[in-house]
Amino acid sequence: MSDVVAFVPTMGALHAGHLELIKRARLLSPNVVLSIFVNPLQFEKSADLDSYPRDLAGDTAKARAAGATKVWAPTYEEVYPEEIVKISAGELGALFEGRERVGHFDGVLTVVNRLFAVVKPSYAIFGEKDFQQLFIVKRWVKENQIPVEIIAVPTVRDGDGLALSSRNARLTPEDRKSALVINRALRASSRDEMVAVLAEEPGFKLDYAEIIDEESFQIADSETRLRRGIVAGWVNGVRLIDNMPLRTEE
Ligand code: PAF
Which of 42, 144, 196, 203 has the most CB atoms around its CB within 10 Å? Predict the structure, then answer.
């Protein structure tokens, strides 16, 4: 049996987006490890941590049906057996998502580092939905020569275009209609247009809308080759994020 491991790190509450990650992992190796660990270090508010949905039996069944060969749900002590050595996500960790969620990306890198140390994967699969997380993890792996290949999987969307997220369960049908403005905005071809589309929806409270350079995650400029719109905001108390490559007919 191959000792190549394809790893899907998650915090549980699995939806079809996670199942795509597992399917992709299966194409890379017959050994697919899925972890379920709600990492306290990446939550800024303890209420969010406490209310995070937990359904180990349901998640395990879904993960196995999608092709995971091992589901690993470690305890806090298994992940952090010693004093925590925190990893910093640097300046980018404080931008965009990091502005709203201080310390979040440090927490993500710290747990990813620990999970990789235990699972020792050859591949780790991340969704593009959390594009800043994906970028920060990729950069950390490259800079530190971590021997894991990071594989990105495109965002899975519902038929109406809303990106799948465990938070969508908290949206009423009315909220969902408001949330769809994000998808419409991301189809704009400039930041101004994106912001104007978002402003048309009274049920949406903008946090940020930017066009970034995919290669640096800085605000795009005239030199930028690959542009991506990133949006975050609130619908009735639920924070939603999404991103898409920018349409190029500028
Ligand atoms: O994207 C997530 O679910 C989490 O941030 C991750 C990568 C599992 C780390 O806790």
Answer: 42
Per-residue pLDDT tens digits for 30-66: 999 999 999 999 998 888 889 888 999 999 999 999 9
- The residue whose two tokens read 């509450």 is 13
Position in ligand 1 atom list of the atom nearest CA 42: 10
Domain span(s) for CATH 3.40.50.620 in the chain: 5-153
| pTM of the entire predicted model | 0.96
Write down the pLDDT at residue 1.
62
For ligand 1, say whether the CB of 9 is within 6 Å of any of its atoms: yes
DSSP 41: G
pLDDT at 128: 98
The domain 166-243 having CATH identifier 3.40.50.300: the answer here is no
CA of 174 to the centre of ligand 1 (A): 29
CA distance 193 to 59: 40
Residue 108 in contact with ligand 1 by CB distance below 6 A: yes
Q: Please state which architecture CATH assigns to domain 5-153.
A: 3-Layer(aba) Sandwich (3.40)
Residue (of 110, 142, 136) closest to 212 by Cα position = 136
Show the low-confidence residues of the chain (pLDDT under 50).
Answer: 250
Task: Look up residue 244 and give its two tokens.
Answer: 């898409």
Three-point CA angle 179, 184, 187, nearest 5°: 140
According to CATH, where is 3.30.1300.10 located in the chain?
A: 166-243
pLDDT recorded at residue 250? 47
Q: Is the CB of 10 under 6 A from ligand 1?
A: yes
Tell me whether residue 15 is one of the annotated catalytic residues: no
